[in-house]
Amino acid sequence: MGGNIPLNFTNTSLGSPREAKDPKWVKWLLISIALSFLGLFLILPLVTVFVQAFEKGFAVYLEAITNPEALSAIKLTLMVAIIAVPLNAVFGIMAAWAITKFHFKGKNLLITLIDLPFAVSPVIAGLIFVLLFGSQGIFGEWLFERDIKIIFALPGIVLATIFVTIPFIARELIPLMQAQGTAEEEASITLGAGGWRTFWHVTLPNIKWALLYGMILCNARAIGEFGGVSVVSGHIRGLTNTMPLHIEILYGEYQFAAAFAVASLMSIMAIFTLIIKNILEWHGKNRRA
User: Which pTM was predicted?
Assistant: First the structure.
């Protein structure tokens, strides 16, 4: 070849951000449109929830969130999340590990099945569980004979919640573990570490922030789930009503202040979740830096 070509990629378009050449008014117009959209469809409804919740005073608000039915709904919602999130975490780790560390037939099918809850309505998922475990379902008679309750009970609500939250943790872990590759695990095994030791000391530390991030998203989705839970719960007051179902009942009975009070409590949970999410993102960026 004619001569040596210097392989210097510094300051190329691949390594540095593209300079914006648009006029400043375009930038501020787009920012204004984005902020206006968020203010109209996100901030305003959120503010309205809190205004309506405290419209009749703090005493009414406190009564709405501390009466037995509300406390039962809060307790059930948290219980379902406490069960669903760890189970999804275990599944997400196993699925991500299988997809990123092994080559096997049907891998694309497994990825598609993980994404299925994003495409299927939660109401349909609830109906499927009713057809399987309801009194007239496939396993209904067998369950009835053994006095096992799934539909209109905690197990059915947990199943519906797990179904709709399956993708969140796996989908956070898969891209990260694909990017990390298998070099560190292979080095660990070469040095004599077993599978479990490699997982606890190599794989888990590398994915812990993505895992926590996925669990937070999964928890937020579990707390707010309505469609699938509505089908399998039976709407039994004080027993199978989660917070979203309790809000629906209160609103349907024209108890607007109470409905908005419980809704504000869910909003506080969502804001708290968002704060934790941003803290984890910030911590992860600092560690990468």
Answer: 0.82
